[in-house]
Write a structure and sequence with these properties.
Ribosomal Protein S5, domain 2; 4-stranded mixed beta sheet; two-stranded antiparallel ribbon; alpha+beta
Length: 291
């Protein structure tokens, strides 16, 4: 099965005092590229959270966001009344000296000034907070994996359609092969006939013709391309984490299709090759999103 590198997951967990909301977003990337936004009071858990997420997403560009809400009023918040009084006195003096009106809402102004509100910080993260936060992270990872699996199923259907189209185009190639060889032979003979008073050994001519036609033989390319198509489908249905391998197989498919085009010497076959390339380019674009 395939997993997409693009995904989103959200996890929410609570204890008696806190609510933790974790959002995890991922995009495609060759390596693991991790960024996080965590409240400063929970920075000591950043590495643990990162390692927990990294072990489950393997690779991709990941963005982890953690939000913490307090569920109940606490007594560890205090207002520095002396500081407020000093601020108010200076603002009144400024109003008088500069001739500007005093604030209409003193509370709104004063409570936003530095060091007015004082919050007593805990000596560390307690066990209840740690358990709740890791549960939210784990739930976000689970939701992300489910999202990736759904997107992976869509990618699988997309690839199957494109591979089947290339296979169908490849099946059309043989009907032009006899005509192609006859046209090549006719073109060479007509060119020779245009040369006056030329004398050549007919037996040697036939040998050279066979050698030339063998160089344009495409049976090996057809066989290898067919094998690559089968291998792509086999790999796609194997265990997750085959994105890079699928990319390599797609490159090999491209080499065989290009060789078919260079050897074809036939307009209709060239059209088939162009159609194959179009299908393959769509595969290459989307294979970058596969984990």
């Amino acid at each position: 099965m395939l997993l997409s590198m693009t995904g989103f997951g959200k996890g929410v967990a609570e204890n008696n005092t806190k609510k933790f909301t974790v959002e995890l977003k991922t995009l495609n990337s060759k390596q693991l590229d991790f960024s996080s936004r965590i409240p400063s009071s929970y920075r000591e858990m950043e590495l643990e959270c990162r390692n927990h997420v990294a072990s489950q997403i393997e690779r991709g560009k990941a963005d982890l966001s953690i939000n913490v809400e307090t569920l109940e009023a606490t007594s560890d918040v205090s207002i520095n009344i002396e500081k407020v009084a000093a601020y108010k006195s200076q603002l009144e003096r400024m109003s008088e000296e500069l001739g500007i009106p005093e604030p209409a809402d003193w509370y709104a102004v004063l409570l936003r000034l530095p060091d007015v509100m004082h919050i007593e910080k805990a000596d560390g993260i307690d066990d209840a907070d740690r358990v709740a936060l890791l549960k939210a992270v784990d739930d976000a990872c689970t939701a992300l994996r489910e999202f990736r699996a759904k997107e992976g199923k869509k990618l699988s259907e997309f690839f199957t359609t494109r591979i089947n189209r290339i296979a169908a185009l490849l099946d059309e190639v043989p009907k032009y092969e006899t005509e192609r060889i006859n046209k090549i032979r006719t073109r060479i003979e007509e060119a020779l006939s245009q040369i006056p008073q030329v004398d050549y050994d007919r037996g040697r001519y036939e040998q050279e013709m066979i050698f030339y036609i063998e160089k344009l033989d495409i049976n090996e390319e057809k066989q290898r391309l067919s094998q690559h198509l089968d291998y792509f489908m086999e790999t796609m249905n194997a265990e997750p984490g085959q994105g890079k391998k699928l990319g390599f197989i797609a490159q090999e498919m491209g080499r065989e299709i290009n060789t078919l085009g260079s050897k074809s010497n036939h307009a209709e076959m060239q059209i088939l090759v162009v159609k194959m390339k179009d299908e393959l380019e769509q595969i290459k674009e989307q294979v970058l999103n596969v984990l």
